[in-house]
Amino acid sequence: MEVHIKIHGQTVSIEVSAEVGEFLDRARHKGENLSHEKRRHWDKREFDEYIVAREGRCYSETPEQWLCRKETLQEIMDALENCTEIQRKRFLLFALNGLSYTEIGKLCGCSKSAVQSSIEAVRKKCRDYFKNSPCETGFWG
Fold first, then answer.
1. Which of 46, 66, 82, 131 is in the most buried spot, having the most CB atoms within 10 Å?
2. Cβ-proximal residues to 100 (8 Å cutoff; 6+ apart), any chain
């Protein structure tokens, strides 16, 4: 295999084995990739940071938003602990999956009115839970 290399500014042709040729080719590709990567991160910022800097938009939540979301989720889970397993299951199918009372009734093998009663019971228990706990906003009406 013939390879062209530069030595002191002059291009020289050298005959090498296929293994050496493959090694030199991989090394050249790796050098090109590193060069591209170096240009992409010339000021040590990642791509999402460029978007924020150029457009003034943030595509991820702040640490404060993350903490509030986690705390709210924990409060809701604590409130749901006061419910029976059946009530919790029906409520989560309704609230998280967006299923109708009829669809939940078919899945759980019960009537639409039984599903409605379960969801109303969960709402009442959650309302009472948040009424008695130090919470700034009322999620449940």
1. 82
2. none
